[in-house]
Amino acid sequence: MDSGLDYHTAKALLEWQVELGATEAILDAPVDRFALDPAPAKPAPAAAAPAVAPPAPVAEIDPVEEARKLAAAAPDLEALRTALSGFTHCDLRRGARNLVFADGVAGARVMIIGEAPGRDEDREGRPFVGRAGQLLDRMLAAIGLSRAPEQPSDGVYITNVLPWRPPQNRDPTPQEIAMMVPFMRRHVELAAPDIVVLMGNISCQAGLGQRGITRLRGHWTQAYGAPALPMFHPAYLLRKPHAKREAWADLLSLQARLRDGGQDG
Ligand code: URA
């Protein structure tokens, strides 16, 4: 069949569909569903219009307020996961295979907050399992921390601002981030870490309301009511290996803070 598309456009469209998870053909021939749509109903003549009152205006839902209510009502991490999975106002969930909630040791002294799941995380339903995640594991191991530690005291807890993968790994929009901040605040409250690590710009945008990781990294601050350390994202370090020097300095700063008790001051 001649689709009228050139080879490269057709291939890009096919790859896009595979990326979205449409990996199986269900029928032998394509179906044009727009052609199947019933014709739009003709408006009834004015004389036949029923004499009913116009419908009351539907109250606009504020997704951030809705997120606040749902998150605040969650008494524990499992309930928070359930609340997130029932949150319907963020369109990202529709394109994602899995909700990616968290990994590692809940209750650990360090909570790592990344950006959003990528393809591997979306498949597995766990944060930081792809190449960036493997680098993160090596970085943490260098200061004696792990998401699967032998001693619970060496554990870390890992999550992301966004629990759903954005299409094509695009940056989340400010609205998408704003809807997730109440969940993240509650997540930190319930996990109660001594320290949060904000990995990369999106995490700083959500936790500090600021971007500019090159300027922010390595400077201790407060986020979600806890001492917070912004750091370069491991995906950035994969692209810019020369920045590993600063990342190492930040890891040592994190280690020193943990030795000091992880509190302010
Ligand atoms: N990058 C992130 O920020 N989080 C992940 O889970 C994977 C990659």
TrEMBL record:
| Gene Ontology annotations of biological process type | DNA repair
Which part of the chain is the Uracil-DNA glycosylase-like domain? 101-252
Q: What class of enzyme is it?
A: hydrolase
* EC annotation from Swiss-Prot or TrEMBL: 3.2.2.27
Alphabetical list of SMART domains matching this protein: UDG (SM00986), UreE_C (SM00987)
An example Pfam family from this entry, by short name, is UDG
**Its catalytic activity?**
Hydrolyzes single-stranded DNA or mismatched double-stranded DNA and polynucleotides, releasing free uracil
Q: Is DNA-binding tagged as a keyword?
A: no
Record bears the keyword ATP-binding:
no
Q: Which UniProt keywords apply?
A: 4Fe-4S, DNA damage, DNA repair, Hydrolase, Iron, Iron-sulfur, Metal-binding
Organism's domain of life? Bacteria
MF terms (GO), sorted A to Z:
4 iron, 4 sulfur cluster binding; metal ion binding; uracil DNA N-glycosylase activity
| Alphabetized NCBIfam families for the sequence | UDG_fam4
Q: Which family does it belong to?
A: Belongs to the uracil-DNA glycosylase (UDG) superfamily. Type 4 (UDGa) family.
Q: What is this protein called?
A: Type-4 uracil-DNA glycosylase
Source organism per entry reads: Sediminimonas qiaohouensis
